[in-house]
């Protein structure tokens, strides 16, 4: 049994992953951005899941969640699932929050970051990025950045299994009802990477789609771009990885 945090688990892929991991006997920590959203997790909490609440668009809330988790039983894995499609919260939620949690949380030996095929359309440039969400951010850029973060963590933390997952375009609230991909397959890979002892699941630095390791955007494994991203996020948040 592993203790696994699934961020953004009030609905969609996060909810499905948390539900499945709980059913498999894992100790699951679920997350919602506010108390109203947390009500959707009552059924999972009744089954034994632990709840943390915090709006990942706000750095103070991310730090508060990290502090609460560090005061509790250590985590074995984190599935960085929380994400938004558009608007000013794109950069704060999709890249700054997972960066801060990665820097602040003690103990997790498996980290899974939700990417997207949209990351191929991202720009490997940090010029004029609004990290604080004063204006709308680029979803594609944010997913390129978080996929790069996953690769950087894999390189810099050899004792940690760090991977990125493209769940596919699935029919969630974000994906829309006409999304063509399989909702069930959309959450299985991140669960597998977070908990399985199969040899492939014990690898690091991968970009995965339905349990197949694929080649990501060429910038993802560019160490100079990784270092620039980490330096920028360190300066922006005042917190080093």
Helix content: 25-40%
Low-confidence stretches: none
**Largest sheet properties:** 8 strands, mixed
Range of strand content: 5-15%
Write up what this structure looks like:
There is one protein chain. The protein is an alpha/beta fold and 241 residues long. 39% of the residues lie in helices and 14% in strands. It contains eight helices and eight strands. The protein has helices at residues 12-23, 35-38, 42-46, 59-70, 90-104, 139-156, 183-195, 223-237; strands at 3-6, 27-32, 50-53, 77-80, 110-114, 161-165, 207-209, 212-214. The chain has an eight-stranded mixed beta sheet, with helices on both faces. β4 (77-80), α5 and β5 form a beta-alpha-beta unit. α1 crosses α7 and α6 (139-156) crosses α8. The chain is globular. The model has no long low-confidence stretch (mean pLDDT 94).
């Amino acid at each position: 049994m592993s203790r696994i945090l699934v961020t953004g688990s009030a609905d969609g892929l996060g909810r499905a992953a948390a539900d499945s991991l709980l059913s498999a006997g894992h100790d699951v920590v679920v997350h919602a951005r506010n108390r109203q959203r947390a009500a959707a997790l009552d059924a999972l909490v009744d089954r034994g899941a632990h709840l943390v609440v915090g709006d990942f668009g706000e750095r103070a809330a991310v730090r508060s969640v990290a502090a609460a988790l560090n005061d509790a039983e250590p985590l074995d894995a984190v599935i960085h699932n929380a994400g938004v499609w558009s608007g000013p919260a794109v950069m704060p939620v999709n890249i700054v929050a997972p960066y801060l949690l990665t820097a602040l949380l003690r103990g997790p030996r498996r980290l899974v970051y939700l990417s997207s095929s949209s990351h191929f359309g991202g720009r490997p440039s940090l010029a004029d990025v609004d990290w604080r969400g004063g204006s709308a951010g680029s979803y594609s850029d944010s997913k390129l950045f978080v996929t790069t973060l996953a690769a950087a963590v894999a390189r810099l933390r050899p004792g940690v299994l760090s991977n990125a997952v493209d769940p596919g375009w699935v029919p969630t609230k974000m994906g829309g009802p006409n999304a063509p991909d399989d909702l069930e397959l959309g959450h299985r890979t991140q669960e597998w990477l977070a908990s399985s002892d199969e040899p492939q699941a014990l690898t690091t630095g991968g970009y995965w789609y339905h349990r197949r390791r694929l080649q990501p955007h060429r910038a993802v494994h560019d160490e100079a771009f990784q270092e620039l991203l980490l330096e920028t996020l360190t300066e922006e948040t005042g917190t080093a990885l």
